[in-house]
Amino acid sequence: MTLNSGSLGALGNKVGGPAYDRTAVRPGIVHFGVGGFHRAHQAMYLDRLMNDGKALDWGIAGVGVMPADRRMADVMKAQDCLYTLVVKHPDGTLEPRVIGSIVEYLFAPDDPEAVLARMADPQTRIVSLTITEGGYHVHQVTGELDTSDAGLAADLVEGATPISVFGFVVEALARRRAAGVPPFTVMSCDNIPGNGHVARKMLTSFARLKDPELADWVEREVRFPNSMVDRITPVTADADRDALADRFGVEDGWPVVCEPFTQWVLEDDFGAGRPPYEEVGVQLVHDVEPYELMKLRLLNASHQALCYLGYLAGYRYAHEVCQDKLFVDFLLGYMDEEGTPTLPEVPGVDLFRYKRQLIERFANPEVRDTLARLCAESSDRIPKWLLPVIREQLAAGRGIDRAALVVASWARYAEGVDEQGEPIEVVDRLRDKLVERAQRNREDPLVFISDPDLFGDLAADERFVAAYRSSLSSLHERGARATLEGLAG
Questions:
Q1: Residue 401 in 3-state DSSP?
Q2: C-alpha torsion 147→153→156→158, nearest 10
Q3: What residue stretches are annotated with the Mannitol dehydrogenase N-terminal domain (predicted)?
């Protein structure tokens, strides 16, 4: 069965699907960045609501702005925006469900005006974002808007047709203001500390470069709720497509696979209404920060703690690393001794249980999350997830040995060759600069951390430098596994 609207009635008993009339669903949310995570998370929650007969005026209109998004556009068009979400349980059980909450997909390079028209429509009341950590153009050290991106520069030219996410959001807000239409809420769902605050600051800064009066209006009228999102969603593999077709009879050009666990903590701050998210398990709170820091400094930073060391040691999947006691002890040591001391109290959460649950999630053999995925775009991740832990630990006079080793393992990984002499494909928007520096690690052990755009003044901290230098030397001389054994000893 090829998945599309006409074949929904042919879904077998083992595959769930929309119990609502999709022709009655009207777009109320425009979403930038329709990838695996959005489809396994925010779109899934809306589908739950719609299956309860609610939120039918909150359908999603997806938007792609990057050339690579054309493939998603083609799949969405062929499948009437339907896709299969497959939950992979640790015992090998697969739980497939067709999701119908995305009802439109617009590929911006083909028709930018259609995107702007949808965003300017009063029916659109939320614009949500999963545009990756680097999509907010934050200078890693100053925290201000980094305008060096070519897309932003092009969108700042007077009269230009938008090509960037920022360009579309600001132009749509300008049109709504001019037409007397209330603004939409901008809802960031990316892994950034204070993602709503960051979205507000960066978008307002961009708007100010175009039109100071518009920026004042955005600052005054537009809501930017913070959120914390969590669900491990690996890259879809051909084996996932084959399993869906062979075991359930569904041919899906781009299904999504994910773990059973899901969490969404959302600040209840919306200017033009919102779906009743709380009715399907979303935690609506006044202050997201404690939950956000918990996730970023424990889950996300732990992903960084396992991926480079694991890859150097010869592993290729997260579950392989987390079935190795040496690595598990290292991860728990980082979380207990270095990550947790930097956290405020997290209401309603047992942190001891949360951290052990993280190890169980990472060790799920069915998810098959690749270390290569976790190692990608490190320059946008380490500065936001791990370096704040190091700085707070240094300021408090507490231990940093494990976190310093993680930074050193990134520097060693970025050299582009593993411990067996095999090439490593470094995936990062700053790849050339990172690899060039890393390949000088042996002659100048501090060259990698001497980049002020990524590390600020950490290279001037004697305690961090000593721990980092020792770790990097051990990785070069003894390798990842022996380095962990030495730390444990």
A1: helix
A2: 160
A3: 28-277
Pick the CATH number of 5-285 from 3.40.50.720, 1.10.1040.50, 3.20.20.140, 3.40.640.10: 3.40.50.720
Q: Is the pTM of this model over 0.85?
A: yes
Backbone angles phi, psi at 36, to 5 degrees: -60, -45
pLDDT digits (tens, 9 = 90+) for 279-323: 999 999 999 999 999 999 999 999 999 999 999 999 999 999 999
Burial class (CB in 10 A: 0-12, 13-18, 19+), 292: buried
Whether CATH 1.10.1040.10 fits 289-488: yes
Over the stretch 410-468, which tens digit does the pLDDT of each residue have? 999 999 999 999 999 999 999 999 999 999 999 999 999 999 999 999 999 999 999 99
Query: Cβ atoms within 10 A of the Cβ of 444, count?
Result: 10
| Three-state secondary structure call for residue 279 | helix
| Residue 298: count of CB within 10 angstroms of its CB | 25
Count of Cβ atoms closer than 10 Å to residue 395 Cβ: 9
Split at pLDDT 50, 70, 90, the class of 12 is: confident
What is the C-alpha to C-alpha distance for residues 306 and 284, in angstroms, rounded to an integer?
A: 31
Q: Which long-range contacts (CB under 8 A, 24 or more apart) does 364-367 make?
A: 364/88, 364/89, 364/90, 364/232, 364/259, 364/319, 365/90, 365/319, 365/323, 366/88, 366/89, 366/90, 366/91, 366/92, 367/88, 367/232, 367/234, 367/257, 367/258, 367/259, 367/318, 367/319
What gap in Å lies between CA 92 and CA 367, rounded to an integer? 9
Q: How many CB atoms lie within 10 A of CB 24?
A: 11
Query: Count of CB atoms within 10 A of residue 22's CB?
Result: 18
According to the model, what pLDDT value does residue 115 have? 98
Residues 6 or more apart from 440 whose CB is under 8 A from it?
Answer: 447
Q: pLDDT tens, 254-289?
A: 999 999 999 999 999 999 999 999 999 999 999 999
Q: Supply 463's token pair.
A: 């305690």
Domain ranges within the chain, ordered by starting residue: 5-285, 289-488
| Residue entry with tokens 């961090």 | 464
From the CB of residue 267, how many other CB atoms can be counted at a distance below 10 Å?
A: 21
